């Protein structure tokens, strides 16, 4: 494929090319791309705003992350933050810093992922900014969403005796990243330009890393079931760290049962292959984009009936602290360490 230098289109030509296939889908988007500012009309809703900055070399590595996937993920992780407030994402703005390595085709690939995410989640692209960059690719996405008055769920509402719940399974995206990094170094060491990594049987963990989804479906199910969580957040930095956020914001403690943490079979196999402690990976891995939430004990039966939701523990008084209850009944204080710190002190 022939590659087009961005200078052949110019900044405005590029913006035009990138944004022309984004028809507006929401009535709250009054004016999208093409003026000095977008115009949004949220009537009597509460407006939610979240933003994320992604830097090449810090948050992603273009050697093994396809640009289309990168665009999809960059958008979806913002949607996830809006769902985590019990809201609905409606608009995004996308700001780009492009170094001279990037061609029109590269940026179009990135935008094809953003477009797919916008179509699937019903979100409008309403603006952005485009600039040259000296240090590789920079992507910043801001997402605007709506919530109903009185229905927004904060991190601060958890109460002692509430049930702790999490959607989906944990640790898979982290194990997917380990696999990608390993195959990337094997490829480099092989010296073969056409080295083919072996990903057979590992599709799920790769997809969880490269193409995560926001749990729109869980928000809809909770709504349908008439369950209003008392607190909620999405799991981006690892369950352990997110539990501590909820405990701190709500002024409570918690108990999480090791044997209740949902883990997929492929995650378990990969952890075994890497000789890593599985529960540590699930607690500290991150990038799961599942929803962690609390519900009153009286919602026990209703929440148990929800497909794809696990009850993993309960909220306690603050004096009891936040702890993991191991399979043999020991209580280990939860720590908000990333994987590396945790791993180095571990005796598997
Ligand atoms: P300004 O000079 O006012 O910053 P720009 O020329 O940067 O305006 O942008 C023109 C229009 O294109 C605006 O509506 C802006 O939001 C939009 N835009 C600019 N860059 C992007 C981008 N990377 N993605 C989407 N929209 C963009
Ligand atoms: Mg601009």
Q: Give the total of beta strands.
A: 13
Instruction: Measure the end-to-end span.
Output: 49 Å
| Percent of residues in helices | 25-40%
Give the C-level CATH assignment of the largest domain: Alpha Beta
What overall form do the CA principal axes indicate? globular
Number of helices, counting only DSSP H or I runs of 4 residues or more:
11
User: Which spans have pLDDT < 50 for at least 5 consecutive residues?
Assistant: 338-348
**In which order are the strands of the major sheet placed?**
8-10-7-11-9-12-13
The main sheet comes to:
7 strands, mixed
Structural class: alpha+beta
CATH superfamily of the largest domain: PurM-like C-terminal domain
Output the helix-strand order: HEEEHEHEEEHHHEHEHHEHEEEH
Fold-level CATH name of the largest domain: Phosphoribosyl-aminoimidazole Synthetase, Chain A, domain 2
Radius of gyration: 21 Å
Number of domains: 2
Judging by the overall fold, what is the CATH architecture of the largest domain? Alpha-Beta Complex
Strand content: 15-25%
Overall mean pLDDT: 94
Catalogue the ligands. Answer: adenosine-5'-diphosphate, magnesium ion
């Amino acid at each position: 494929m022939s590659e087009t230098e961005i200078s052949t289109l110019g900044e405005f030509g590029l913006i035009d090319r990138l944004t022309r296939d984004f028809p507006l889908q929401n009535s709250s988007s009054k004016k999208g791309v093409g003026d000095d500012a977008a115009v949004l009309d949220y009537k009597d809703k509460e407006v939610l705003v979240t933003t994320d900055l992604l830097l090449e070399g810090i948050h992603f590595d273009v050697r093994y992350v396809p640009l289309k996937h990168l665009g999809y993920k960059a958008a979806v992780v913002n949607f996830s933050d809006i769902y985590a407030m019990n809201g609905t994402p409606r608009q995004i703005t996308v700001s780009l810093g492009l170094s001279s390595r990037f061609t029109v085709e590269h940026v179009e690939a990135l935008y094809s992922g953003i477009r797919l995410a916008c179509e699937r989640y019903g979100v409008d692209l309403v603006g952005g900014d485009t600039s040259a960059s000296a240090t590789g690719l920079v992507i910043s996405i801001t997402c605007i969403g709506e919530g109903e008055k009185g229905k927004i769920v904060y991190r601060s509402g958890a109460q002692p005796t509430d049930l702790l719940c999490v959607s989906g399974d944990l640790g898979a995206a982290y194990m997917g990243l380990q696999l990608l990094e390993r195959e990337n170094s094997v490829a480099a060491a092989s010296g073969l330009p056409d080295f083919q990594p072996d990903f057979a049987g590992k599709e799920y963990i790769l997809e969880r890393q490269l193409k995560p989804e926001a749990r729109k479906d869980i928000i809809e199910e909770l709504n349908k079931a008439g369950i209003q969580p008392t607190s909620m957040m999405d799991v981006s930095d690892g369950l352990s760290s997110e539990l501590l956020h909820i405990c701190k914001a709500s002024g409570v403690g918690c108990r999480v049962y090791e044997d209740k943490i949902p883990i997929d079979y492929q995650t378990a196999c990969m952890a075994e292959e890497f000789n890593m402690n599985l529960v540590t990976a699930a607690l500290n891995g991150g990038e799961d984009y599942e929803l962690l939430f609390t519900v009153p004990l009286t919602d026990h039966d209703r929440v148990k009936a929800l497909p794809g939701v696990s009850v993993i523990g309960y909220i306690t008084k603050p004096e009891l602290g936040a702890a993991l209850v191991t399979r043999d009944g020991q209580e280990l204080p939860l720590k908000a360490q990333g994987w590396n710190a945790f791993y180095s002190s571990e005796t598997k």
